[in-house]
Q: What sequence folds into this?
């Protein structure tokens, strides 16, 4: 009996480095960090544009079409571990040290390599446009990053180069989360924290992105709480001053505290159907003009987990 | 006129302490959940330029350090035993 061919998809590996320049020339070596993705759809998207000539045809012609842009984009999802946050919180916020706060000017980008058995892809100058934190289906907390970058290249010569440093970190579990809303710890079945960085890569007279533009950032928290009179009185009706909400993870001597000090809830409570007496609220974080409160902050201490 | 005291609007719970802190992380206080007393207060400092020294980070570090050093602390053990995986929601 012939031996069937084996697709070695399980040998996919990743390696990460912060970008060193525009464009980045960062090398991957023993200091590269090997985080494992739960899913990764990042790739190069070509825009192949047809001419919109009036004297056309009922079908498109390849000879009239042009590649007008090439952008790296996709989503990477990880089980959220303290060591992973060490690397990505500076990328998400633009702030290198804890407590990480969103930076009005400047951002941090990263390079990563995805190694397959036969080849490897290398992506340069990637940024996070949106980071979403939520519990995964099996209880580990997940972090989904919408990623866009400047260039992606493939080359068999860096195959398996991603196997650099093993990180045996354990992700935070949802049972390690404490969610405090309006000065009270709440029972929360499900939650989602979404940070939109407002950073956009643009192409200015270039096939690939060559400039970054900073737009409006946002931070929202979705969570469901028991719809009690106490919860409703504490959480709803706080007007434009909103309420404070914190999301804290801790394990041993590692901790991560997400703080939104002015979370505004514009919509009154609406219950679930089927008699489930829970209320799913969405809060939008605000900052103060004087800077006394920021959009959000993330105090993170991994205690150098590895 | 002395500067007004920042409102400790944000709150989290960590290892037997409630940490109340200002939204700009300029001030924080740790309340012992066992006694209800404020055990330690912090303000943001700039004594070490390599670090931000915000009050929340100081408070978190103090709670972790205090847990490890104090032989008298039993609240966390009690909480863990009582809650059996619950996170101590009130």
A:
């Amino acid at each position: 009996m012939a031996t069937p061919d084996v697709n070695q998809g399980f040998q996919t590996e990743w390696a990460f480095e912060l970008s060193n320049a525009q464009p980045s020339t960062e090398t991957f070596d023993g200091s590269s960090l090997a985080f494992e993705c739960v899913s990764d759809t990042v790739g190069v998207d070509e825009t192949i544009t047809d001419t919109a000539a009036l004297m056309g045809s009922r079908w498109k012609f390849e000879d009239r079409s042009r590649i007008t842009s090439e952008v790296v984009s996709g989503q990477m999802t990880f089980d959220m571990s303290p060591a992973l946050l060490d690397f990505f919180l500076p990328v998400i916020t633009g702030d290198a040290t804890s407590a990480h706060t969103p930076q009005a000017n400047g951002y941090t980008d990263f390079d990563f390599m995805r190694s397959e058995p036969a080849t490897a892809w290398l992506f340069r100058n990637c940024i996070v446009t949106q980071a979403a934190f939520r519990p995964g289906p099996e209880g580990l907390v997940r972090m989904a990053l919408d990623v866009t970058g400047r260039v992606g290249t493939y080359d068999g010569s860096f195959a398996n180069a991603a196997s650099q440093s093993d990180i045996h970190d354990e992700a935070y579990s949802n049972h390690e989360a404490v969610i405090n809303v309006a000065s009270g710890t709440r029972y929360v079945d499900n939650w989602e924290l979404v940070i939109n960085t407002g950073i956009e890569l643009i192409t200015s007279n270039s096939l690939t992105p060559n400039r970054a533009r900073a737009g409006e950032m946002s931070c929202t928290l979705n969570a469901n709480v028991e719809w009690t009179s106490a919860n409703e009185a504490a959480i709803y009706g706080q007007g434009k001053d909103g309420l404070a909400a914190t999301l804290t993870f801790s394990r041993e001597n590692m901790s991560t505290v997400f703080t939104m000090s002015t979370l505004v809830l514009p919509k009154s409570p609406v219950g679930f159907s089927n008699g489930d007496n829970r209320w799913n609220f969405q809060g939008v974080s605000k900052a103060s003009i004087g800077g006394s409160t920021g959009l959000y902050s993330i105090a993170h201490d991994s205690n150098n987990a590895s | 006129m002395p500067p007004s005291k920042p409102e400790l609007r944000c709150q989290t719970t960590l290892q037997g302490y409630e940490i109340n802190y200002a939204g700009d992380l300029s001030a924080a206080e740790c309340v012992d959940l066992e006694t209800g007393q404020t055990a330690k207060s912090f303000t943001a400092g700039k004594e070490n330029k390599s670090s931000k020294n915000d009050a929340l980070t100081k408070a978190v570090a103090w709670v972790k350090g205090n847990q490890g050093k104090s032989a008298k602390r039993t609240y966390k053990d009690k909480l863990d035993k009582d809650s059996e995986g619950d996170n101590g929601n009130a």
